[in-house]
Write a structure and sequence with these properties.
heterodimer; A: about 20% strand; B: about 250 residues; alpha/beta; Rossmann fold; 4-stranded antiparallel β-sheet; about 30% helix; binds adenosine-5'-diphosphate; binds magnesium ion
Amino acid sequence: MKIPLSYSIRNLAVRRTTTLMTALGIAATVAVLLAVMALAEGLRSAFAATGHPLHVLVTRKGSDSELSSNFERRVFQDLLYKPGIASGSNGQPLASLEMVTVINLPAADNPDGVNVTLRGVGPAGIEMRDLAMPQGRWFESGKREAVVGKSILARFPTAQVGDTLRFGKGEWQIVGVMDGGRSAVNSEVFVDLNQAASDFDRSSVLSSALLRASDELARNALINDLETDQRLNVAARTERDYYASQMVASAPIQFLGTFVAIIMAIGSSFACMNTMYAAVARRSKEIGTLRVLGFSQWSILTAFFLESLALAAIGGLLGIVLVLPLSNVSTAIGSFVSFSEVSFNLSVTPSVMITGLIFALVMGVLGGLLPARMAARKEILNALRDI
Amino acid sequence: MQDVVIETRKLTKIYKRDEFEVVALKEADFTLRRGDFVALMGPSGSGKSTLLHLAAAMDKPTSGSIRVLGEDIAALRDREIAAWRNRHVGFVFQSFNLIPVLTAHENVELPLKLMRMTRQQREEHSRTALELVGLGDRVGHFPRQLSGGQEQRVAIARAIVTDPDLILADEPTGNLDANSAQEVLTLLRRLNEEFGKTVVIVTHDPHAARFARGIRYIEKGELLPEGATPEDWTPATPFAVTTPGNPKSSAQA
Ligand SMILES: Nc1ncnc2c1ncn2[C@@H]1O[C@H](COP(=O)(O)OP(=O)(O)O)[C@@H](O)[C@H]1O
Ligand SMILES: [Mg+2]
């Protein structure tokens, strides 16, 4: 690099309005991409945090989600005697029969209400999940009582402890709040299994079973055993795998976001190119002078190329600054699989930021290459003649 | 060390523009010796700049030969030319051509970036050059903070900082008021007398030309023989320009 970098940087500073406009375009592009990535990252960590590694989720064969699974109580009874299931504190197998459905809650920001997952569980289901209880108590069996995830609390003003919710065949009182760390349970409402089954007329056909295997080896054997048992006709996978597969929920948004980011990137690259072409045209005489002083075409190319990269880097950094406040924003996304909302935190991780910067630099490369080449190819005398 | 700095034989430059050909320089024989200080005079469009550009290898001749400091510069490749010019030729422009975003010191230091030098050496050379042109107290100033005369002196400092043998100045006083012009010409004269630099200046101004040791005239692309003035010279052949020179280029120095 023969021509000092300060030459390129100061030229950006001199035409600061153009620089800022172009950089803002790049910043907006980077911000869109990073927001999409932060969303994916947040979802990933929400789902990855859900589920115990030894848990096996069993649904009826052919069902992608608990919601669409019809799982018979009779089948559950057969499952209990499969080898490899761990025992709970009372000596009973750690296995939970569950009913999953969707209820509609009025939300502050959505007059039509928002769908939320309702889960009927028994004592085993509560014991198996490692849930803290920051407020209230668990529901009593046989009562219309509900415990809500802590994300629900934040998002639905009418779903606080002491409030009542209408669904099934009557009014349900909220008696507690559960906290499952970063897991998707925080976006669910838990009620007593039998009460829910009777309210929704599903006493013999429920949704799924959650089993805890005694160890990893037993877990794999158990999954294999369940999957191959023709008589049971069930699908089994680890709870983690199940939630990871729910990630597809964010795929359309990610796709759209990435698509928009790419379109914007093309626009921003052209804007960058335009700015740089203008700079080359305006500094024609300067280019000729540098050549007369003995700088090679290569030096000229490098100087203008670096100027474009620096411009893009400014845009990239601005973009990161724009999305940084998103980092602690909690948001919700409708899951297309469970038809209900899952809350999670956007996370702008360092790797997300680096990706943003690289993305910006790519725009700088695309926008800078041709103008830099044009600068380098000017004939000295023609360059000097231009004012 | 060659005694002859510039030597041209039948040096010709023809510009082709669309259908037309402009003979900017016609079979010029020009010899410049070490320590010379020559003023090139002639009307606008007569080919003065063309000769200077050819001597600085900023352009290639159409025919004829040119050797500068013993080098057949027309035969050099682009990269070699750049390095050669950096080392051997200091060029001074009519409109100064300082880099606006760089300070006086940075402008002067620029050609040294191409040489193998430590940062400290570069600073020393740059300071020496600026002091020589009387601007030791303006090192941190940007071009826009300087007067025209000062800008041109910075440009001269930039031209001499690499210690070149040859200084070519194309109408260096064309954009200056009388006082500044006087300063710049005195400076060039000093570079010639005290530092033995070989200098060629292009000028319209007879007063400016008097600072040089000798004057060469160009008329319509023809370099008049040494000692000849336009009054006592008549072209041997009718002048061969097929079209009048482009007014824009002619206006340019
Ligand atoms: N790049 C060019 N293309 C076409 N014609 C040119 C070019 N450069 C110079 N000329 C022509 O060559 C002639 C000599 O130009 P020049 O050397 O610049 O004159 P001077 O410096 O004496 O005013 C003029 O007629 C000018 O129009
Ligand atoms: Mg000229």
